[in-house]
From TrEMBL:
Organism: Seminavis robusta
Transmembrane domains' residue ranges: none
UniProt biased composition (Polar residues): 231-240
Sorted UniProt keywords: Signal
Biased composition (Basic and acidic residues): 65-83
Signal peptide: 1-18
PANTHER family: AGL049CP, PYRIDOXAMINE 5'-PHOSPHATE OXIDASE ALR4036 FAMILY FMN-BINDING DOMAIN-CONTAINING PROTEIN
Region: Disordered, residue numbers: 49-83, 220-254
Alphabetical list of Pfam families matching this protein: Pyridox_oxase_2 (PF12766)
Name used for this protein in its record: Pyridoxamine 5'-phosphate oxidase Alr4036 family FMN-binding domain-containing protein
InterPro entries membership: Pyridox_Oxase_Alr4036_FMN-bd (IPR024624), Split_barrel_FMN-bd (IPR012349)
Domain Pyridoxamine 5'-phosphate oxidase Alr4036 family FMN-binding: 87-189
Length: 300
């Protein structure tokens, strides 16, 4: 009888230790699988689910949990671009432009207008030529932001279609290197020909831009072949009579700008910024009444 009892006790002690070992192994396997699942796109969700099912039970575990959560939050903030959520579009675009400065074509932007007869959008590439500064008391200075001008400067030909289209437009600027998109909408102003005589600041800005153009660009404005008109035998090549480089043949100085050369300004009042790397989006708006910009993060 004694022998039978001992055998039974030995049997129970062996099976219970084997059971303990098995729980340990299963527990470890289940836990070690959590990090593997983090490599999928739903990693965050899997991680949260695992955390919820392993909610802390003791004060020590709870404290560990708090520390761990704080570490994760700090990691989260550390990895985020510190500029986001803190700066206006104008300060952000300054950084974007600096990051892309050396990339050829990084100043090509798309300008959309509306053909008011067809009531259809029209879009084309133009060269962004900087932000136009105005004196503090100038009427066009109202859109300044962070002490920086917000007026986008470009040029175009008075004979091109956009000039007849909507007086408002939107520019899209994609920065491929930093994966950022800016959409800037606002009023368009064309300065040139008959349209700049009464404002010395605008007239000065137009002349400055003319002087800064490359020779081929300047020469193209003297070409008598009307842009967009059907090509004929005589218009198949560039206009030979156009002065080389748009310069005076004897003195070599740039000639005065012809009437069809227009300074084109965009005065944005709404800027939509999207950062694909950070999944971050911000909308900046200009309040005319308060004469100031404000911004808000929105869902990307
Ligand atoms: C890279 C590139 C840069 C251009 N830059 C300008 C520019 O600065 N200004 C401009 O009026 N057109 C520019 N164009 C030509 C326009 O895209 C467009 O063909 C022209 O302005 C006529 O457009 P519209 O008839 O809609 O006015 C550029 C085109 C390309 C491809």
């Amino acid at each position: 009888m004694m022998l039978l009892r001992r055998l039974l006790m030995l049997y129970f002690s062996i099976t219970s230790s084997a059971l303990t070992r098995n729980i340990g192994v299963f527990g470890l396997t289940a836990f070690s699988r959590i990090p593997l699942s983090l490599s999928t796109s739903s990693a965050g969700q899997n991680f949260c689910e695992a955390k919820m099912s392993n909610s802390p039970t003791t004060a020590a575990e709870a404290s560990d949990e708090t520390t761990h959560t704080r570490d994760l939050q700090q990691q989260d903030t550390k990895d985020k671009d510190p500029e986001l959520g803190q700066k206006s579009w104008r300060s952000l675009i300054e950084i974007s432009m600096a990051r892309s400065r050396k990339i050829r074509g990084s100043n090509y932007v798309q300008l959309a207008t509306v053909d008011l007869e067809a009531m259809e959008p029209r879009c084309r590439t133009v060269v962004f030529r900087g932000f136009q500064k105005f004196p503090a008391d100038h009427k066009n200075n109202s859109g300044a932001c962070d002490d920086l001008s917000t007026v986008l400067k470009m040029c175009t030909d008075a004979r091109s279609r956009k000039v007849q289209e909507s007086p408002a437009g939107e520019i899209v600027w994609w920065f491929a290197k930093s994966s950022e998109q800016y959409r800037m909408r606002g009023k368009l102003l064309y300065v040139g020909g008959q349209n700049d005589g009464d404002d010395p600041e605008l007239s000065k800005a137009r002349k400055e831009l003319w002087g800064n153009l490359s020779d081929p660009a300047r020469e193209s404005f003297f070409d008598q072949n009307v842009p967009g008109a059907p090509t004929t035998k005589t218009t198949a090549t560039n206009d030979e009579s156009a002065p080389a480089g748009g310069r005076d043949a004897s003195a070599g100085k740039p000639l005065p700008p012809p009437d069809n050369f227009l300074l084109m300004l965009l005065f944005p009042h709404h800027v939509d910024y999207l950062n694909l790397k950070e999944n971050y989006r911000q909308v900046d708006t200009f309040s005319k009444d308060e004469s100031s910009w404000s911004f808000q993060q929105v869902n990307a």
